[in-house]
Amino acid sequence: MTGVSDHELVAKALQGNQKAFRAIVERHHATAYSVVRAILGNRDDVEDVLQNVYIKVYRGLAGFRGDARLSTWIYQIARNEAINAARRRRPDAQPIEEIAVPAPESANPEAEYGKQERGRHLEMAMAGLEENYRVALELRYMGERSYEEIAEVMGLPMGTVKTYIHRGKAQLRRTMARHQQPVFERKP
User: Which of 26, 73, 134, 149 could be stapled to 38 by a disulfide with Cβ–Cβ 3.0 to 4.6 Å?
Assistant: First the structure.
């Protein structure tokens, strides 16, 4: 349902139009995913939490007043659900899926191992960032959002968003340099 505003989609979804609700989910999935992943990390929990987010969005649509943009409202629901899930998570439990080693996809095991190691180091470095930096970076690079969209979703001035992204990238560079893992290539 391209070309249809969020408010029109909400109105249609409230009338029982399932395609309209599906369009809302598809339109805002990258934002919700980025926020949940930024808070929980790279875990299978992300999909479970997203299901809860979409259930809350569906149930709460009637209460959506439109004071803020729909993306901001969904961001807040996703953030709260992810924080609640992180609190419920037992730190000593490790799912068996995380223990199993997946078969390499490439024909070059060394290259695949290096790629996995860089990914693991990046995940660890991201987990060590302050939440605001992590969320801003996730929205920018995983959610492919513009600075304006991030500012609106996070409810922050654009200058603050730029600062969070700049400082987050700087911290990632320092952390990854300690492990000799490049993160963001500087453009000439």
Answer: 134
